[in-house]
Amino acid sequence: MNRLAAPLLIGLLGAAALLWLGFWQMERLAWKLGVLAEITATIDGDPQPLPVLVDPEAQRYQPVTLTGHIGDGALFVLVSVKRQGAGWRVISPFTTDDGRTILLDRGFTPVAEKSAPRRSGAVTLTGNLHWPDDRNDSTPENDEADNTWFARDIGAMAEALKTEPLLVVARDITPPDAGISPLPVSTEGIPNDHLQYAVTWFSLAAVWLLMTGAWIWRRLQGKD
């Protein structure tokens, strides 16, 4: 039995650690699903007025319905959309009926349509407030001279278009923009890999136990 003590101890301790990591990831999965459900409920909730005092954490994804007019000019953020390819998010100034001018993310247009004419004028829109986190360590700097943006940097965009630093991402615009498809706020881009991680840890635990069984078998056969 002394010959089996080491493989049994190592095998059980290793498998227990790997199983603990798997179950921890399952707990994280349940937490993440709850967070995503909460975000979805906020996105689809009842529209609220534009905030006067801005709180990005409390007001993130807040739904709004606005009437006003789209102003002249636009900024173009380079993006890639599944099944559509490369293109631009079109960001324009939008002035509400009560006189506030904010940023409006109108949606996606193909990369070749950057210089196409854009409609302006009176619209009614529904959308969500958003403070996007588009920038990371590998994101290039925006080329404002060429009107090519790589991230929705709200402060710089507001300065360029002379608006408040407040962004609404359109879900629906009436009348619709010809050539622009809304890219509404959703949970699609929020990573949720916890199930994949859990499966990985559980699989490693199974492999560890198999290797432990093989080690014990060799000990019993007198091969170790």
Write up what this structure looks like.
The protein is of the alpha+beta class. It is elongated. It has a 5-stranded mixed β-barrel. 36% of the residues lie in helices and 24% in strands. It folds into 2 domains: 2-39 and 192-220; 62-174, OB fold (Dihydrolipoamide Acetyltransferase, E2P). The protein is built from 4 helices and 6 strands. Helix 1 (2-43) runs antiparallel to helix 4. The mean pLDDT is 90. The protein has helices at residues 2-43, 56-59, 154-161, 194-220; strands at residues 63-70, 75-81, 85-96, 101-110, 121-129, 167-174.
Q: Runs with pLDDT <50, length 5+?
A: none
Fraction of residues in helix: 25-40%
Return the string of H and E elements.
HHEEEEEHEH
Q: Structural class of the helices, strands and pairings?
A: alpha+beta
Give me the CATH architecture of the largest domain, please: Beta Barrel
- Count of helix runs: 4
Largest sheet: 5 strands, mixed, barrel
**Integer tally of domains:** 2
Radius of gyration (Å): 26 Å
> At the third CATH level, what is the topology name of the largest domain?
OB fold (Dihydrolipoamide Acetyltransferase, E2P)
Main location: membrane
Membrane topology: Multi-pass membrane protein
Region (Disordered): 124-143
Keywords: Cell membrane, Membrane, Transmembrane, Transmembrane helix
